[in-house]
Each structure stands twice: as structure tokens, then as C-alpha cells.
Amino acid sequence: MPFKPGSIGVIAIIAAIAVAGGMAADNLPTNDAPNPYKTITNWAHLPDGRKWGSTAGVTPGPDGNIWAYDRCGANSCAGSDLDPILEFDPSGKLLRHFGKGLFVQPHGLSVDKDGNVWVTDDQAKDGKGLQVFKFSPDGRVLMTLGKKGVAGEGTDTFGAPSAAVVAANGDIFVADGHNGCECNNSRIVKFSKDGKFLMQFGKKGSGPGELDLPHALAFDSRGRLFVADRSNNRVQIFDQNGKFIAAWKQFGRPSGLFISRDILYVSDSESQPEDGYGHDPGVRRGIRIGNISDGKVTAFIPDPAPTGITSMAEGVAADRNGNVYGAEVGPMDLKKYVKR
Questions:
Q1: pLDDT of residue 20
Q2: Which CATH number fits domain 28-339: 3.40.50.2300, 1.10.630.10, 2.120.10.30, 1.10.10.10?
Q3: For burial by CB atoms within 10 Å, which of 8, 100, 116, 179 has the most?
Q4: Low-confidence residues of the chain, pLDDT below 50?
């Protein structure tokens, strides 16, 4: 006997298929998960007592220290002689800083298993920008991808690279197509460990596997690539050859992604009910946390004062002790969240 549409049997079957395929059965935005964290401010101390500018990048290194960047006391490093890239110990003590004169607007930040620091620059000005930098832990430039200050859609140029991460085998994945890009780029570009172009996938759109402002990247323990498909208000999951696996909307409008021990941390800094940019009705801004095995959101750190185009954390990370870090563009701050 066939099931009637909407029957309990059909719903159960659809839910089972969704979970088996890597999709959450309740693939809806979650606003009411518990918040087990308290907020710590002013924990990371910048050089020479300077104040934070905008930041969207924070991540732990393999030694447990915390890396972040500061957009040179403003929302841009153009014309600045300040070092934007910073390393802190877990107490917030500054250990080192470097990178002055290289960036227009630092954007994506990640650290690979060898401790090398990867930073993207998503803008161009005065012959700089639109590149991906690989630094040694002491600040030496080991590799660059893209042509300095040159926008493009090819295999050796970017339109606006927003993030870069390194797979276990050394392959490099770059998200290209931040808003403000005067190009058609909305793609993931894959390179070998020595910087040779291998492939690209994704195109501008809202269908499965299509992208609209790929903003952040992260790998899980199985090597699956999670993409913050921000303007589509979803996280998408791919294999490393670009095969679409799943799309999750329950984590809100994702600006930042981080995965540790297969716990997914997603920052939503832009959701708003009004039409236009950031339109994501019924979704609160904040940091959502959940297990990738079922995609269920288990914790939510809400934005205490959502305002404007962006607020609270755009970048997000967690350390080995489970402390959460939020890198903020609008409020110009780097906050730490610890278990109550």
C-alpha cells in the first residue's frame, strides 16, 4: 500500500535517508540550543598596546597557541606599517607578529599540521592583494598563490580569495569569490602541495554544489570539505574531487567554519530578517556548535547585540580544551568563550 504524502512512514524514511547521506534530519535553523559558555574580553594583548581593528581570522596551531590577524587597527592594512599576523599563547600573551607591507585586507587564516600559517588577501590596491600566502611559523614567506594585485578567473589568478586550507596529503584548497569581487568567480580551487593547479569546482548559483560567496573552509576527519556558502545561507559538504555530498541550513548563515574532533563550529555574523543583503528570516546571529555525525546543533552562543550588516564573530575556532574564539569585523575584537 503506497504511503500518503506527509504520512509518518514517509517522514521517517526521508529522515533516515537524510542522516545516512550526511544531512541532518531537522535541516532547519536552530536558535534555542543551550549556551554553556561565558564571554572573556580583553584577553589577547596586541603589540605596543594598540587597539584591535577588524578581524575575521583566528585558529589554533598544532602546539596549542592561537593565531589571529588584525587589520592594522582598521578594516584594511593598505598603507600601514603594522604587522597584521599575530601569535598568542593560551593566556593571551603575544609571542610574535609579522606580515607588514604584504596585505591590503587579510581575510582567511588557517594553520596546517606542520605549523605553517596560510592567509588570504581578498582585496587589491596599489599593486598588492588577491593572493594566498604560506608563512613559516617565524614569518618567512614560503609560497604565494595568485598574481599580486591582479584579478582573474584563471588557474593562476583569483577574483577575491576568502579562505585557504590544506588537506592531509598537502593539497591546497582556496575559496574564491568574496563579495566585492568584480568577476564571476564563485568556486573552490585545488592546488598540489607545491602550488600546481589541479582543478576547480563550483559555480555561481543556489543549486546543490553551486556557490554564492564561499567564505570559509574546513576539513573533517574523513577528509570531507565543508564550505561556508554564505549568501546561500548554508554549509555545503564536498569530497576532495568536488563531488557534492550534502547541504545544511541548520547552522544559519555561515561566515566562519572550524572543525575539531568532528565538532563543527559555525559563526553567523550577518543573518537578518529584512530583504536584501543578509536576508535569513527567523535566524539569530551567533555561534552554533554541533556534531558532524548527525548535523544536530547542540550549543548556541547568541549575539548579544545584533546590529548593522555584521556583528559578533565572523571567524571562529576552538582550542584543544574546548574554548571557543570569535574574530569580529564590526565590533573590532577577538573574544574568548569558556565553559561555565
A1: 38
A2: 2.120.10.30
A3: 116
A4: 1-25
